[in-house]
Amino acid sequence: MKTNRQQSFIATLELGTSHVNFLGQLHGTPATRLDTHYSGGFFTGVSKRHNDSHLLGHRDRQEIVDPAPMTIYFRCTDDYYHLYIRSHVVYSGHCVSKDHAGFLGAFLPAGRDTTSFNLLSLDNQVITLRDLPRDTHRVRLQARNARPVGSILRRGAPYRYMGETDEKGIVFTLRILERNASFLSDPDEV
To answer: Which domain of life is it from (predicted)?
Structure first.
């Protein structure tokens, strides 16, 4: 039986013609949205600006100056993964996790509250590194015990977010850069 380290890897997640990264990286910091509160079709309060720079999104590659892919450490536990950011100046060491509204973003590791993910094949079967013999695969992501990850428009923002969706989920290109990858803090792990 393989260890968690042997099932862990470093990779990039990409979309066909879009670049995946944090909204602040894709659109400039701060990436803000205007939140207006409605109830029963009526405006019920003061609009507020929210900084969504730390949330994941995607943008057409042609609109971006430096479309280098984001590097993620996929840390395996059983048949699911915690996603640690490795390539971002501000968010390196943070985890990709869900916020209270189901949108994905960079958050400090929070133990059991950190979102874990399943990798899914195109026929929606849970897969791990042992099911990925090549270095490039097309996969879907699904927050464990939740809905698939998809592309979402959000009221008050001109951005494409990533978060839980009722759809099948978007198909990512997963490019494995390193297999049998350890935590940065424990390079001698077996």
So the answer is: Bacteria
